[in-house]
Design goal:
The chain is 35% helix and 24% strand. It has 12 helices and 18 strands. A 10-stranded mixed sheet has the order 16-15-14-13-7-12-11-8-17-18.
Length: 384
């Protein structure tokens, strides 16, 4: 492989642009781009800074000048494209969800493990300096015993019956929309930051609109606009999460509070330049910067001085830089891989199962993510 990883981007929409920018920021090269047609690929080649537009995703994957394949297409296409890229021996960065079914996500994870390739799934909120600072402080015991983990992820881009997108169609987006699209980000961030793992959950999903307008006609909607869930973890904590894509005025508000017996840590993605830490005797809002943060993880990703916020694209750039470091033989800490994509698929399946059965659902153990899901009632029957 060349010293500079060469990427191919499949998908010409917003996420394709985000990936292309991150590739260049990481010192990589966008060798080729593929879209739904040759025309869309040619139009995107200029805007994405790609050297070549290919006639199809298959042609892009087969190119000798593509080392890393970035899959930025509608959810239902991820599994087939990832299979082809793995079979070609390419490193793969696949937008989440890794697949629209638990079975496909499990298969892809196994294929990638056996092929020995580098994989990445963009759980990029891990790469905010404030998040890494919180993680390091929690790991060294500053919070005491974590007992309550709670938060929300709220957006408003689907507020209004006329607002629609391919993600609304369950055939393209999958069985879960709000949780599968953004709720899994929060869960990944919670588990990554705290070291806790969700072991069981109960969920309720809801819709603000049972029908949405497409091409002037109303169509029924099968996926949720929002979800609320309670959960328990393997370390004895309880938690709650509210997710919505129809919360007017909330553009991209991922917020958490991880509360321990000694201190609580909270973060708001719409104000990414601050980490809030509270105790019974004091509270502090720590500004993000290489000199103001105190832990190795926080300082590693803090590129700018306090007062110069690093945002979503900066975190994405750091994620892709770590993927490319792994492609070149390094082992960056905290890189989200296909196994993390599988974890998200397991949690999504559990949410869908719980909402349908209106019961608690047990999550497969962290050491064996290939177990099947069971409702609590099924588990009790098996014990009898």
């Amino acid at each position: 492989m060349t010293l500079k990883p060469r990427s191919g981007i499949i998908g010409t929409g917003f996420m394709g642009s985000v990936h292309a920018h991150a590739v260049r920021a990481a010192g990589g090269e966008v060798s080729a781009v593929a879209g739904s047609s040759q025309a869309s690929a040619e139009a995107a080649a200029t805007s994405l800074g790609a050297r070549t537009a290919t006639e199809s995703p298959e042609a892009l994957i087969a190119r000798d000048d593509v080392d890393v394949v970035h899959i930025c297409t509608p959810n239902a296409t991820h599994a087939d494209l990832a299979r082809m890229a793995i079979a070609a021996g390419k490193a793969v960065v696949c937008e989440k969800p890794l697949a629209t079914s638990f079975e496909d996500a499990r298969e892809l994870t196994g294929l990638a493990d056996r092929a020995g390739i580098v994989t990445g799934v963009p759980f990029v909120y891990r790469f905010y300096p404030a998040v890494r600072e919180a993680r390091d402080r929690i790991q060294r015991g500053d919070a005491g015993r974590l007992w309550l983990l709670h938060g929300s992820y709220l957006q408003d881009w689907l507020a209004g019956a006329e607002a629609t997108n391919w993600r609304v169609d369950s055939k393209l987006g999958g069985a879960s929309r709000a949780f599968g699209d953004i709720g899994v980000h929060w869960c990944d961030l919670m588990e990554f930051t705290t070291g806790h793992r969700i072991t069981r959950l109960v969920a309720k999903t809801s819709r603000a609109y049972d029908q949405r307008e497409t091409c002037g006609q109303l169509s029924s909607v099968a996926t949720e606009d929002g979800a609320a869930l309670l959960f328990e973890t393997n370390k004895g904590a309880t938690g709650s999460l509210v997710v919505s894509q129809v919360s007017p005025g909330r553009k991209n508000r991922l917020w958490f509070s991880f509360d321990g017996t000694e201190a609580s840590f909270s973060f708001n993605q719409e104000r990414p330049d601050t980490l809030h830490i509270g105790s019974t005797t004091s509270t502090s809002d720590i500004p993000v910067g290489p000199e103001s943060l105190s832990t190795p993880g926080g300082r590693r990703y803090a590129k700018l001085p306090p007062g110069h916020p690093q945002g979503y694209q900066d975190s994405f750039n750091s994620f892709v830089a770590d993927v490319y470091a792994a492609v070149q033989g390094q082992a960056p800490a905290g890189l989200p891989t296909f196994r993390d994509g599988l974890r998200a698929a397991i949690l999504t399946d559990a949410l869908v199962t719980s909402a349908a059965s209106q019961s608690w659902v047990d999550i497969p153990g962290v050491d064996n993510p290939f177990e099947s899901l069971k409702s609590s009632s099924e588990s009790e029957r098996q014990k009898q």
